[in-house]
Amino acid sequence: MTDARLFHWGAVCSLITLILLCLAWELVLAPLRPGGSFLVLKAVLLLLPLMGVLRQRVYTYQWSSMFILAFFAEGVMRAWSDSGLSQTLALVEVLLTVCYFGSVVLFVRAVRLRQA
């Protein structure tokens, strides 16, 4: 398996896991309000780069590397301010965004080196 494929699958797996985490977090595990909240719509935002990432479009990888930083910031803030299960889920969100960001940067680098 080439480096680019490995980083591609790292990005795909971390993005899909992040989508599932956001859905579970805001609907079932630790919603802000009983029964869920509108914060679950943040999972819809994560669907925006999914098709481009699955198709290995470098442009999508590039803009999504900046896009994911908003989720990183949200995870850091909720890890700082929340407690209990919500704090743990926020730390998992931070971990997944770091994995995604690293995979994206390394994928783009591997593709650029292969093209050179």
Automatic annotation (TrEMBL):
Query: What Pfam family is a match for this entry?
Result: DUF2069
Q: Which InterPro entries match?
A: DUF2069_membrane
Key word Nucleotide-binding present: no
Record keywords, A-Z: Membrane, Transmembrane, Transmembrane helix
Q: Which residues form the signal peptide?
A: none
The membrane-spanning stretches of this chain are 6-29, 36-54, 60-77, 89-111
Any keyword Transmembrane? yes
- The entry's protein name is Membrane protein
Origin organism is Vogesella fluminis
